Predict the 3D structure of the following.
Amino acid sequence: MQTAVNDKKTRKQTKGLKKEWELRLYVAGQTERSVKAFLNLKKICEEHMPGQYHIEVIDLMKQPQLARGDQIVAVPTLVRKLPEPIRKIIGDLSDTERVLIGLDLRERS
């Protein structure tokens, strides 16, 4: 599993855009659920904010101390760092509508 998505060139091209999405996905190893969460997130990002996002994957099996900073109590957990306010979504991110609402990309109906 990748630990970051979007290279420097892509990020440089998107600096002038209105929103840059900084997303952090906490996982515990490369489990089926962790991989599914990453793939679901990447698909959502490509469809709804192409070229405007950066995903950082943090494996708590390798760096458990990082869970404290974002108050992670379950994995996988997605943390939207930017744009503010910070938002969290727990689960494998398979419910696209719930993720879009959680990221504030779509309003609740």
